[in-house]
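Can't paste images in this forum, so I'm doing it all in text. The chain is below; anyone willing to post the predicted structure tokens underneath?
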Amino acid sequence: MSSDDLPGKDASGEDHRRGHRSRLKDRFARAGRAGLADYEFLELILFRSIPQRDVKPLAKDLIARFGSVAEVLGAPIARLREVEGVGESTALDFKIVEAAGHELAKGAVGKRVQLGSWSAVIDYCRAAMAFAEKEQFRILFLDKRNGLLADEVQQTGTVDHTPVYPREVMKRALELSASAIILVHNHPSGDPTPSEADVRMTREIADIAKPLGVVVHDHIIVGRNGHSSLRGLRLI
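Text version of the structure:
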């Protein structure tokens, strides 16, 4: 039995709190995540972190500050701590939930990347990178059947730039005996539109990869406002 399930005092405020928590848990058990507003879903997480007080105002403050559940979970601990009522333990709980979500998405991709359906790849990339505050450049290394050999963050840069070295990309692909790669990076600005530098770098990697027998399937750019595919845009 968790601490917020224990019998409370007779005070009407505490009775109301216990009743609200019970109702919210019941609704989640019946309808799942779809049955809850963003702030209500955050309340469920906060119930475990802060068992002895009403957390609805805090959950609403977090949504107002960051914009969505995904952005709350993806925010750095230091920024979470800037919100009144969020302590170190609460911030860490959010990061644990975020990491669990990444593992679920990664598991879906790891079983098999099906190139006819990009949904698992996109979901994983957005979960892992869309709300990061700095640019990351990661590579999905695939075998000849498009199974995931490795998922690696090769570079982390600033808020608007990540240095990428095409020969290092191919060196790692050959080390893993990869037959194909998918390039992924995020735009912290939120706009996933590829830049001229993104296109130029992708073509350079593809040119080096081709004679080595490695296919560049795509370069996916993710952001808060969606994603773009250079392959889909016919830029590679």
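The mean pLDDT is 83. The radius of gyration is 21 Å.
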